[in-house]
Amino acid sequence: MAPTALRTIAATAVALALGAAAADAAPRRVVALTPFTANTAARIGLTPIAIGQTLGGQDRFAPELRGVPRLALSHPSGPNIEQLAARRPQLVLSAPVWRKGHGAMRRLKMPVLESEPRTVAQVATQTRRIGRALGRSAAANRRAAFIDRRVAAITRGIRRRPTVLLVLGVGRTSYAMLANSWGGDVVRRAGGRLLTQGLRAGDGYARISDEAVVARNPDIIIAVPHGESKDYARQAAYLRTKAGWRTTRAARNGRVYVATGNSLLQPYDDVYLTIRDVRRLFLKNL
Question: Which ranges carry the Fe/B12 periplasmic-binding domain (predicted)?
Answer without folding.
Answer: 29-286
